[in-house]
Amino acid sequence: MKYSIFSLARAALSGHKNWQRTWRDAAPKDRYDVVIIGGGGHGLATAWFLASEFGIKNVAVLEKDRKSVV
Question: Is 17 a residue whose pLDDT tops 80?
Answer without folding.
Answer: no
